[in-house]
Amino acid sequence: MYTTSSLFLHTLAQVGITHAFVNWGSDHPAFLEDLERQRVDHGDTVVEIITCPNEMVAMSAAQAFAQVAGRPAAVIVHVDVGTQALAGAVHNACRGKVPVLVFAGASPFTVDGELKGSRNEWIHWNQDVPDQPAIVRQYMRFTAQINAPENVPQLVRRAIQIATSEPKGPVYLWARREVMEVEVDEALFNTPASLYRWPSIEPTGLSPSGTYHKP
To answer: In terms of domain of life, where is this protein from (predicted)?
Structure first.
């Protein structure tokens, strides 16, 4: 079985992300299920998962990795409080112009089992805020909500394109638990948008990769 979370992890690997620094929460069961599926089916995961004891540690480690490796890293955190706990590390990545993709889950939007992933704990009411990305929007190059599995390949690519284009910096994607638990057909992994990368925008009028030089 594949879910939106499966597609998200698959797309991270497709765009070149090799490491995700994470602090799991109740919005991530579909992620954990798919990671275990990957281990059973393939012996490993498509992205290396580094569990961090605190969100600021995760963001700081992702920044350090991106600076040393020269390529973006991912961070996965838990709802509004996990986003808040990124703390000053968000400022550091922003001012340091370091490309990091942050994904945060969000409280479920259904309340009585209408969909898989519906609210089942009292905390889901406490963690539901009117504008979760506003917590970090001032420090992000791009923020967007994943509303359906079909737009995961496009949103992840757009986020990475912006994160790795000058001025580089962190980007923030988020989604409700029901959305990340939607079952998807394996065919969705092979949509046309999944077959190529969106290149970084080069800071010149005509990029060398977009012009032809006659010999």
So the answer is: Eukaryota
Residue 16: which region, alpha, beta or left (left: phi > 0; alpha: psi -120 to 50)? left
Give all domains of the chain, ordered by start, each with its CATH number.
Answer: 2-210 (3.40.50.970)
Q: What average pLDDT score do residues 80-95 get?
A: 98
How far is the C-alpha of 83 from the C-alpha of 147, rounded, in Å?
A: 19
Q: Is the pTM of this model over 0.90?
A: yes
Which residue in 138, 143, 4, 15 sits closest to 74, CA to CA? 15
Going by pLDDT thresholds of 50, 70 and 90, the confidence category of residue 203 is confident
In sign, the C-alpha dihedral spanning 189, 83, 24, 22 is: positive
Distance, CA of 107 to CA of 90 (rounded, Å): 22
Question: Which residues have CB under 8 Å from 209's CB, separation 6+?
Answer: 199, 202
User: What is the Cα–Cα distance from 206 to 65, expressed in whole angstroms?
Assistant: 31
Q: Dig out the tokens for 101 from the structure.
A: 């993709």
CA distance 132 to 105: 10
* The token pair that represents 52 in the structure block: 């961090």
Contact 142, 134 (CB under 8 A): no
Which alpha helices (H) appear in 48-122, and where do they start and end? 55-69, 79-85, 88-95
